[in-house]
Cytochrome P450 704C1-like (Vitis rotundifolia), 504 residues
Amino acid sequence: MILILLGFYVACSFMLALFGIPSFFLMIFVAKFLFVYIGEVMSKDQRPPVAGPVFNQLVHFRKLFDYQASLAQKYITYRMILPSHSEIYTADPVNVEYILKTNFTNYGKGEYHCDIMKDLFGDGIFAVDGEKWRHQRKLASYEFSTKVLRDFSTSVFQDNAAKLVLKVSMVAAAKQMMDLQDMLMKSTLDSIFKVGFGVDLNSLSGSDVFGNQFIKAFDDSNVIIKRFLNLGLEAALKHNIKVIDSFIFELIRCKREQMKNKELDRGKEDILSRFLLESKKDPKKMNDQYLRDIILSFLIAGKDTSADTLTWFFYMLCKHPLVQEKVVLEVREATKAQINISADEFAKKITEKALDNMQYLHAALTETLRLYPAVPMDGKHSEEDDILPDGFKVKKGDGMCYMAYAMGRMRCIWGEDAGEFRPERWLENGVFQPESPFKFTAFQAGPRICLGKEFAYRQMKILAAVLVNFFKFKLVDERKEARYRTMFTLHMDQGLHLYAFPRL
Ligand code: HEM
């Protein structure tokens, strides 16, 4: 030990003399980290196995979720070491149930995660725990279950699906290829904007310059996953947040004016108007900043997740043409629509009842989410020392991630064909059978399960049904394997390039 210390002292003096103070601090950091790392690996405590230093994730950053999946196949629950604490990763449904439900209060977002998200989300539902979360959850659950919001959002989805058909028709008629991902992102942004604010953004048609700025600001903010992983500096978020904020505050101001002039009543359908009416009861708490945070969270939640899922869904349909044909058959049977009707007319035929009858489509979307969950991993933070159901110890301050992407590929959960895309696994006698949310974790589970799940399925089913009814899709390059870009959401790298052929 004395020799090691002496060696370290000599090395420090040498580095200090040779390279100066920065190298010296770097060396101190490396030494501290090695000390912690070796201590943790050698520890006899019953802690999850160490799969490496957290920096390994930087090495595998481009295929981060596959790297995690390969570690999960080996360990199911494992640990990565940081100088200050451990990050625990699990793909074990028993542990997932424990952290998301049984001991929910111990595994909040934590100060660290909240701080990272604060820039963008403020005090929005994603970034808060405790009383602030409970208040928004209660309010939003109520609003999301109202018939007014449901009917309004369905008609918005129908209108935007028909607009998307027109856009695809133009590209198909010119026999050009298209980036369907880009179109879906714009279409879902238009929908969530209309449902969120009652405003037409028209980003799909590209007629709104602001719409394009807004999308860019949104997309760039997604890069903050790097901060989450402690892997580097965030991109210049400030400018993007300014763009987003100025628009939202202006909208709130206009709506407040309308409210003063009694133009806004309880029948108003968009989410902002409904929250504004609610804010009358407690104007101090629900001030403009709070409303901005709530609404922005919904926008972010609703925009990328549905569009990313639909992108992977169409990719899967192209890779599995038989599934594509089965979906078309079911959609036509469920809508009982005649051929040669317009996209608008067809979209209106997708009623609640028709949606209920699209069980195979529901299964195919769920199968897509199993393999390509829009939120591929999700991090919590342990408030206190704890013991997981598998016996592994958790220390206060540890990070705790469940890995939806890895879980969707675990043979011990889905069987030997876990890697195969097979919608039939979700069906019994043609009827969709849900799986435990602690195994199928794409929407999270427990008290914080996704609030927009039903909303998202309705949007995705309407868009998918309308598109497959009018077009047959083929990949531009059949042999190319799509890859994701490592972000909060599972975005396809470089887009989804397809040809669309009109269906007769
Ligand atoms: C395929 C589509 C979607 C998927 C896969 C999905 C998935 C998720 C996941 C994994 C979470 C947990 C995030 C976390 O706590 O860190 C979440 C939360 C949430 N989602 Fe979704 N989501 C989808 C669509 C939507 C839509 C369309 C909306 C609303 C318009 C929405 C609203 C929310 C809200 C408000 C929360 C926060 C719930 C809470 O913390 O209590 N989601 N979603």
Q: What stands out?
A: The pocket of protoporphyrin IX containing FE is lined by residues 125-126, 137, 140, 297-298, 301-302, 305-306, 309, 369, 374-375, 378, 442-444, 448, 450-452, 455-456 (CB under 6 Å).
